[in-house]
């Protein structure tokens, strides 16, 4: 008989004005195998407690800091894993603390702010035997998995060319004053990359995931189109893969009118595939 016990999730981040936290909570409910049992939802304890109340959590399972939550949940064994949905600069430390405390971690991308921190997290996963899940969520679409399988079977033959693009338009103008824009445009909180680190990583991940190849060389042109910004809001990147194939990656947040239409085309010597987020249940396949 299958177990009816649900996985118990804690959450760090995802409070008032946040975006991705609510997405994680919704996704966790889809298969009814995960329940949110505790959390610290804001760096402001009052906001955290209020959010916990709105989510129907017991008062003693809502915390003022993530250190407090991890320490208490480790002692009481009341949590199975933690989802970290904070701004980028609050990814590394809570992930380290959670892994050391014996918890698996679901971590929003990017993993951290430097290659050194990424290596340290990778080593910690190896040492603890815990799982670190980085949420490149577009790989979950059935047609993306179909494309990956077709290429792995050599249906398209030898891969020659890859085009992947992710245009957004929400930062097309300077007068954007949302909570999301504030931290994403701040290098202290977002890290050294703007658009490329925010959405370019999804395009990069999709290119490698679908083709099964690895990018070995890049030549990038990063631009800050809107005057006064400290980080890139537009990027064009030439790619070279480990089989000799070449590609182009475009990521931009100044494409007026665009939302989230991540798109990829892969060309082999036998055929090609095309997939786009705006029509996510369709995979176009063309043959020689």
From TrEMBL:
Belongs to the Gfo/Idh/MocA family. SUPFAM superfamilies: Glyceraldehyde-3-phosphate dehydrogenase-like, C-terminal domain (SSF55347), NAD(P)-binding Rossmann-fold domains (SSF51735). Residues 8-134 form the Gfo/Idh/MocA-like oxidoreductase N-terminal domain. This is Oxidoreductase. GO terms for molecular function: nucleotide binding. Residues 144-274 form the GFO/IDH/MocA-like oxidoreductase domain. It comes from Adineta ricciae.
